[in-house]
Amino acid sequence: MRLQFEISAADAELSDPIPADQAAALVERIRDRLTVAGLSVSVGSDEASVSPGEADWELLTPVEQEEGGFTYPELLVDGPADIAVSVFKRSVFFSSDPGFGDEQLAAAQVVTAVRALDGLVPVPADVRAELTERAAQLGMGRQWSPRSGHP
Q1: Taxonomically, which superkingdom (predicted)?
Q2: How far apart are CA 113 and CA 11, in angstroms?
Q3: Which tens digits make up the pLDDT trace of 51-90?
Q4: What is this structure's pTM?
């Protein structure tokens, strides 16, 4: 199940921009939630390129500006859904881009991950509705409920 959504720092009740220590603490809470939900998670980082004139340019330190970008923390979930959760300077980004494996297993993994995140970072109502509809199409059937968002 291919899915992407982004939550602004303000909507996630985080500082804007998100300081490195707050990003690290959020990554740990997300890792804990996903692990409790039964997912295998690794924590790493990736690089984002930012050019002068882009909205986030002024958020970069002088060293980051000189390097043309910044390093951000990222969680990767092992499994068919190819899930990544990234904490950028001004948002939290969720993505799933499964290959051609077991679609039902990948969808179940996405639903599990998003439900584990809900309450820690707000999952938009349209994303929840899309997950419920796609899960039903795949015969997974459970409706989204407030209690299902917490492991």
Answers
A1: Bacteria
A2: 19
A3: 999 988 999 999 999 999 999 999 999 999 999 999 999 9
A4: 0.85
